[in-house]
Amino acid sequence: MDFQTAPEIIDAIIKRVQHGVFGYSVIPDEWYSAYINWWKDRHHIEYSKNQLIFSTGVIPIISICVRKLTTPGENVPIMTPVYNIFFNCIKNNGRNVQDCALDYSDGNYSIDFDKLEKMLADPQIKVVKSNATYLLWLDYSALDVTANKLTAHIRKETGLMLSSGEIYGKESGKYFL
After folding, report:
1. How far apart are CA 175 and CA 128, in angstroms?
2. Which phi and psi (to 5°) does residue 15 adopt?
3. Using one digit for the tens of pLDDT, what is the confidence trace for 82-129?
4. Which of 37, 83, 107, 153 is most exposed by smallest CB count within 10 Å?
């Protein structure tokens, strides 16, 4: 049965709507605790609250990283095929997409390492973005090293920032960067 909503409820809704902010305006401490504990419990990595930035999704964070780690006009390589929105994250921030297309043969993708090495030698390149299907593969399963140590080493030696795609699940990126 339909009936009119009580005036007190209508007034409360009107008051709430009048401020005009409809997004995530308050990030509760519980969010920080849940995030910090998730990483600590699953990966034995400890973060503090001041190391975290709240985001409404992966794509906004990729755009933030592009803006913070590069300057307008710089080249940002991606290994295609990738989710098409990754191109927008680069172009919409005034950077240039450098496509390092993967080779495809017999139903498998592979990296042309000569092409990749030549591209990464460009001093304009600062960021490498892989996607959740791990098309930029570095299989380190035979190495006696953790993902964090390997990533830190690559960042130190090359100055490149990497994205491992760990957001898509604990096992989805095991032994791959």
Report:
1. 18
2. -60, -45
3. 888 889 999 999 999 988 888 888 887 777 878 877 887 777 775 544
4. 107
CA distance 149 to 45: 12
Q: Pairing state of beta strands 96-99 and 75-78?
A: parallel
138, amino acid identity? L
Between the two ends of the chain, the Cα-to-Cα distance in Å is: 56
Q: Would you say how long the chain is, in residues?
A: 177
Paired tokens of 120: 């990464």
Which of these, 119, 125, 118, lies nearest to 66 by C-alpha position?
A: 125
Chain centre distance of CA 14: 37
Residue 171: both structure tokens together: 């096992």
List, in order, residues 6 or more apart from 9 with CB less than 8 Å away.
Answer: none
- Residue 175, pLDDT above cutoff 80: no
